[in-house]
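User: For my dataset I need records formatted as: sequence, then structure tokens, nothing else. Please produce one.
Assistant:
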Amino acid sequence: MRILFALFAWLTLATFAPRRPHPPEPVPEVTFVRYEPVALDVTDPGRTRLGPLHFLGGWRLSSNNWRFGGLSSLHVEGGEALAFSDSGWRVRFPLPRGAAGTVRGEVAPLPQGPGRWEAKRDRDIESMWVAGGSVWLGFERRNAIWRFDRATWRATAHAAPPLMHSWPRNRGPEAMLRLPDGRFIIFEEGSGQGGDLLLFAGDPAVAGTPVAKLRYRPPPNYRATDAALLPDGRALVLNRRWTVLQGFTAKLTVLALDRLVPGTELAGREIADFRAPLIVDNLEGLSVAREGGRTIVWITSDDNYLPLQETLLLKFALER
């Protein structure tokens, strides 16, 4: 069954996926999000440890709104999740609190952005950073960075940095970090051998912002899919792999950011390995938050709007 699923996914993911799903039903007036609890380990429902991660909960998400899904970036704040899909939808929903249930959520298009909002090739959002009243989004197939006002979702700046022009259309700005001093780091998805890591002296959505090129080396045969800052100034990087025999697997690494020298190759230290029998899918969204004095790690998956994949939301405490 795993091999059949993997073959199906290979034929339909990424470049081969349709521009947008075309369901028969209309968009509902009210969006509801349903939570179904899941275990970390399907063979050991009581397991809560994964290296330094303490599993606090996991949920399978579904909705009455066909536009819900495809989550490729994630930001958690104030008891709410903000996510963007690889079809350009803005998704918001309250965080689950243990048991199964249904809550009211929101799915909406961006009022502005590159190209047409109806076209996946124009609005494939893979990375996000939220700071104050601004949100920066990385558009993969356009290899562009746009900044939006968080209250109105109107664009306030955008640029297509020259060093991103040569990035493959389907391996563009996959992860984004804003450092405390205002500099930005943008990860190219790259290949299983690594990809570019661009260090911007300031806002990457402003044309002409000085930028230097470094390299990011993921675990062998993996690709970076998202990143988040830890309270101590290091970065947490989510890395994904797909193979015919194993389907999706993922690794979480910790990356030191104290040697951001042009031309340097940065590699992280692996702290968690997601593979069967652990629950895993196409893990693409990562967010770090603080809760009760603890560092909380949230991870979500991109189901590519395919019935054989799932939208997962996983919650961990990082304990060392």
